[in-house]
Known about the structure:
The complex is a heterodimer. Chain A is α/β, with parallel strands linked by helices. Chain A has one domain: Rossmann fold. Chain A contains eight helices and five strands; from the N terminus they run βααβααβααβαβα. The radius of gyration of chain A is 14 Å and the shape is globular. Chain B has three helices and no strands. The N and C termini of chain B lie far apart (about 60 Å). The interface of A and B includes residues 16, 20, 53, 54 and 58 of A.
Amino acid sequence: MTIFDDWISFDTNIYIFGIREDPKFPACVELLERIGKLYVYLPRQIIRELQNNLHPDEVHELFGLFSRYPDRVRINWQTTTPALIEKFKRLGCKLGDAAVAAHLEEEGVDTLISENRHFWAEISNLPFRVLNATAALKEMGKFP
Amino acid sequence: METLDLRVDEFAQEIASWESTRQEILLQKLVDLNYRRGLKALSEKIKKRLLAENKLHESIDEIFAELARVREAVAADDYLR
């Protein structure tokens, strides 16, 4: 499994810290800049969160930018399976986190990049690994 | 304008004579550069808007709290209605 070969997902915080160019999270900025080198799966839950955190014209522009990489950024507007959401709620996730986890399991996504890594680490038996942006960049550095 | 068109045409003719791998590398570089420029412009626009709304210097905890609130609200809208 490498970060270059497999579909991964960015948690919403990666997009938000990246787009705000937050000085405390420079790795998020760099990761967002390098999205065209990865295969990034964007499920409905994350899309709708971005819509709620940004203005409509900003979302439109952001997705217009992603559309320059049609083979690299996959957008899925479908809701996920309620039974999977229940499974992750039983593991200790709140509804929203359970929805994200369910989307990832449903699509077979093996890696979630998140700056909320410590929170995700508290959930046992997740079917994907969680890296922060810095760790993801380090992994990318192994494969120039 | 005509001079510019002519130069673009000459440049395109030259690139068309390159082997396809080189052409693809150039095209990919253009896509990447335009994406990064677009992303930078969008970041500046969003930061300007956040500054006007007095939200640019929110603490990390405030941002995480808002993200968590939105996450639950979106999921409730999709799965609890």
